[in-house]
Specification:
The complex is a heterodimer of chains A (225) and B (441). Chain A is an alpha+beta fold. Chain A has helices at 6-20, 30-41, 46-56, 60-67, 89-107, 149-160, 177-184, 204-212; strands spanning 81-86, 120-125, 137-139, 142-144. With 441 residues, chain B is α/β, with parallel strands linked by helices. The chains are: A alpha+beta (225), B alpha/beta (441).
Chain lengths: 225, 441
C-alpha cells in the first residue's frame, strides 16, 4: 500500500482541517474530503480513504461504506476529462442515445472506461438539470449544451489532442477532473466570475416578458410591515 | 383573482411575472452589483422573527421543491426556546428528471438564495445554515461559493450582521451523485457524512433533523422567493396565482418545443398558454404526452392542455404539480422507451434501504426492457402494474412512489402502444425521428 509523501500529506492535512473546521461535527466533512482526495489522485484511492478515516477518526470500512454509495467518487482512475452523456428519457430521446452510441464507437471505450492515453473517460449520466438545453453532455461537470453526435466526437477528439476547450456555460477554460474535484471539496478556484450569467433558454421567458411589457404586479405601499 | 385576464375573444390569458428571473439578462446578475444590497434582509433583521414567519404564512408560499407544503407553516413547527441549536438546510440537489430551474437560478441569481437564507435563518432562530448542492454542476457551485463569500465580505453573513447582534454562518456543501439526497431526510444523513438514505418519519426534521436538532429544509426556489415577499408584502405575493396555490414559480419547458426554457409565471397558468409563448410544439409535430412536474408526476396528454398548473387542479386530474418540469414529447416519441428510461433511472437511484423499492424497480426494469424490444406479452402489463402496486406506499420515502407514476399513467393512457410492441415484435417507432436533428431529416 502506498502512502502520501510528507509534502503532499502536509498540504492535504492543511486543506482537510480547514474544511472540517466549517462543520459543527467533523463527520459532515466526509463528502468534501472524498472530493479532496479525488482531487489529489484522480479517483478515490485506498490511500485517500485511509487519510479520510484518520482525519475524521473513523474506520476505513466506514469511509468505504460511504464512498461506494455515491457515483461521483470513482473507484478507478478517471480521465483527465471525464465526459458524461445524459441518457435519461428526455435527453436520450432528443438524441442522447445516438450521441452515446456514436461516441463510444468513435472513442473505442464504454461506460466507466478511460482511453489508453488517460485523457478521456466516459459515463452514461442521469438528468443533469439542463433539460432545456437537450441533448446535454458534461465534461468534468461543466455544461456542454445542445450537443450532436458530430459535436460530441469533435469534443472528445479535441480533448485528446490537448486543445483548449470552453464549456457552453462556464469558465473560458475547461479545468481538469482533479481541479474540478478540488472546487467540489469546497476550495474555490476563483473562476466564478467567468462565463455568462444566463444564456439561451434560461432567458427565453424573460425575453418574451420584456417584449410584451409583462411584469409582476407593482407592490402596494408600506408592504413589508 | 384577476390574474387570468380576459381579452378580446374571451380567451384566458395569463402573462409572465419575472421576479427571480428578472435580472438574468444582466451580465453581472450573479454579483452583488447586479443583484442589489440585500434590502429585504435589512428590513427582516429589524423585524420580530415571528412576524417574518407570519408574513410568509400569509403570503401562501408553498414549497417549490415538488411537495408544495406551506413554507411558513413549516417554519412555525420549529420549537422555540428549546435551548437546542436550530439549522436551516437548503435543498439544492435538483435532480428530478426534467427539473432544471434551481440550477440556472443559482447560476444567474445566487444572491436571491443567500439573502433568502439570511431572512429564513433569522426567522427560525438558526445560527448555522447549509446549502446542499448536487456535485455535478461545477460552475453553479462556484457561483454560490462566490456569492456567499461576497455576502461575508459585506457583513451580510458572519457575526453581528449589520450591527443587529445576529450571527449566521453559511456553508456551501456539495453532494456526490445521488438522486436520493434530494429527499430531505436522506439529504440530512448525507450532510452528516453518511450514505444518503431516508429516515423514518416521524420524528420530522422540524423536531429532530440535522444532528437530531430542529431543522428547516427548503428548496432553493422557495428560499429565493422569500426576499421578494419581505420587500413587497404577503398581499403582493398572494395577488398572483390561484386561491390555494399563490404566487409565481419558474416553469421549465423542455423537449419537443420550439423555444424551450424558463418561464416565470403565476401558478395556475396552463400548458396551452405556455406553449403559445414558447412557439408551440416543434414545427410539423403535435403534442403526445408530457410531465407536469418531473418524471415522478404521472404523465398527461393533449387532453390536459387546459389544466391550470396549480397544486389542486393538477392533483384533481390525477397527477402532481411537482417541480413544474414540463417535459414535452411529440408523436415521434415511443412512450414505452421514455418509461423504460425513467424506470432504469429509479432502479439506479434506489438507495436500497426498502425492499419494495429496491427489488421492485429492478424487476420493473427487466420487464420493461423486454416489452420495449417487443418480446413481452400482455401478461407483462399485468406484471408491471402488480409490481407498481406493491411499491406504492410501501417504502420510507417517495422515490418508489415516483417510480410508479410513469408506469401506471403510461399504461392508462397508452395501453395500445404497449400492445403494439409485442404484436409486431419490435418498437414501432423510428428513433431518429424524435431527435433534434431528425426533425428536419
Amino acid at each position: 500500500m502506498t502512502t502520501y509523501s510528507p509534502e503532499v500529506r502536509e498540504r492535504l492535512e492543511r486543506d482537510a482541517k480547514e474544511i472540517i473546521g466549517r462543520y459543527p461535527k467533523p463527520r459532515s466533512a466526509l463528502l468534501p474530503l472524498l472530493h479532496l482526495v479525488q482531487a489529489e489522485d484522480g479517483y478515490v484511492t485506498d490511500t485517500g480513504q485511509e487519510f479520510c478515516a484518520e482525519m475524521l477518526g473513523l474506520t476505513k470500512a466506514e469511509i468505504v461504506g460511504v464512498s461506494t454509495f455515491y457515483t461521483m467518487y470513482k473507484r478507478r482512475p478517471a480521465g483527465e476529462f471525464h465526459v458524461g452523456v445524459c441518457i435519461n428519457s428526455l435527453c436520450a430521446i432528443m438524441g442522447g442515445d445516438q450521441i452515446w452510441e456514436e461516441l463510444t464507437e468513435h472513442a473505442g471505450i464504454g461506460n466507466g472506461e478511460t482511453t489508453s492515453d488517460g485523457k478521456v473517460s466516459l459515463e452514461r449520466i442521469e438528468c443533469n438539470a439542463a433539460c432545456d438545453f437537450a441533448p446535454v453532455m458534461m465534461v468534468n461537470w461543466e455544461f456542454f449544451d445542445n450537443q450532436t453526435p458530430d459535436s460530441a466526437k469533435q469534443l472528445v477528439d479535441d480533448l485528446r489532442a490537448g486543445k483548449e476547450i470552453a464549456p457552453t456555460r462556464g469558465p473560458g477554460r475547461l479545468c481538469s477532473f482533479k481541479e474540478a474535484s478540488r472546487v467540489l471539496a469546497g476550495l474555490p478556484d476563483g473562476q466564478a466570475g467567468d462565463g455568462p450569467s444566463a444564456v439561451g433558454p434560461s432567458i427565453e421567458g424573460l425575453k418574451i416578458a420584456k417584449a410584451n411589457g409583462w411584469t409582476a404586479p407593482a407592490p402596494s405601499k408600506g408592504a413589508s410591515e | 383573482m384577476d390574474r387570468a385576464r380576459t381579452f378580446e375573444g374571451g380567451l384566458r390569458m395569463t402573462t409572465l411575472t419575472p421576479v427571480l428571473t428578472a435580472n438574468w439578462d444582466r451580465a453581472d446578475s450573479f454579483t452583488l452589483q447586479g443583484y442589489g444590497e440585500y434590502e429585504a434582509a435589512k428590513t427582516a433583521l429589524g423585524m420580530d422573527p415571528d412576524a417574518i414567519i407570519k408574513v410568509v404564512k400569509d403570503s401562501g408560499l408553498r414549497g417549490r421543491g415538488g411537495a408544495g407544503f406551506p413554507t411558513g407553516m413549516k417554519w412555525g413547527f420549529i420549537p422555540q426556546g428549546d435551548g437546542k441549536a436550530h439549522y436551516l438546510v437548503v435543498n439544492a440537489d435538483e435532480s428530478e428528471p426534467g427539473t432544471c430551474k434551481d440550477i440556472p437560478l443559482m447560476m444567474a441569481n445566487p444572491h436571491s438564495l443567500v439573502e433568502g437564507v439570511i431572512i429564513t435563518a433569522f426567522a427560525i432562530r438558526a445560527n448555522q445554515a447549509f446549502i446542499y448542492i448536487r456535485g455535478e454542476v461545477l460552475h453553479v457551485v462556484r457561483r454560490v461559493q462566490a456569492a456567499v463569500a461576497e455576502a461575508y465580505e459585506k457583513g451580510y453573513l458572519g457575526t453581528d450582521i449589520l450591527g443587529s447582534g445576529y450571527d449566521l454562518e453559511l456553508v456551501v456543501h456539495t453532494g456526490a451523485g445521488a438522486y436520493i439526497c434530494g429527499e430531505e431526510t436522506a439529504l440530512l444523513d448525507s450532510l452528516e457524512g453518511y450514505r444518503g438514505q431516508p429516515r423514518l418519519k416521524p420524528p420530522f426534521p422540524a423536531v429532530a433533523g440535522l444532528y437530531a436538532c430542529p431543522t428547516v429544509i427548503n428548496n432553493v426556489e422557495s428560499i429565493a422567493s422569500v426576499p421578494s415577499i419581505v420587500s413587497n408584502g404577503a398581499d403582493w405575493f398572494a395577488s398572483m396565482g390561484t386561491e390555494k396555490s399563490k404566487g409565481f414559480g419558474i416553469f421549465s419547458l423542455s423537449g419537443h418545443v420550439t423555444r424551450p426554457g424558463q418561464y416565470e409565471a403565476p401558478l395556475g397558468i396552463t400548458l396551452r398558454e405556455l406553449l403559445d409563448m414558447a412557439g408551440g410544439v416543434r414545427a410539423g409535430h403535435r403534442l403526445k404526452f408530457w410531465t407536469p412536474g418531473g418524471s415522478s408526476t404521472p404523465i398527461f396528454t393533449d387532453e390536459h392542455l387546459d389544466v391550470p398548473l396549480d397544486f389542486e387542479s393538477v392533483g384533481a386530474k390525477g397527477s402532481m404539480l411537482g417541480t413544474r418540469a414540463l417535459q414535452i414529447f411529440d408523436e415521434t416519441t415511443c412512450v414505452v422507451r421514455a418509461v423504460l428510461r425513467w424506470t432504469e433511472f429509479y432502479a439506479h437511484e434506489s438507495c436500497g434501504k426498502c425492499t419494495p423499492c429496491r427489488e421492485g424497480t429492478y424487476w420493473l426494469k427487466q420487464v420493461l426492457r423486454r416489452l420495449e424490444k417487443g418480446q413481452g406479452t400482455e401478461d407483462d402489463l399485468t406484471t408491471i402494474t402488480d409490481i407498481a402496486d406493491n411499491i406504492l406506499g410501501r417504502s420510507f420515502c417517495a422515490l418508489g412512489d415516483g417510480a410508479v407514476s410513469p408506469i401506471h399513467s403510461s399504461v392508462k393512457h397508452f395501453r395500445d402502444e404497449y400492445l403494439k410492441h409485442f404484436e409486431i415484435g419490435a418498437c414501432p417507432f423510428d428513433r431518429a425521428a424524435s431527435t433534434v436533428w431528425g426533425a428536419s431529416a
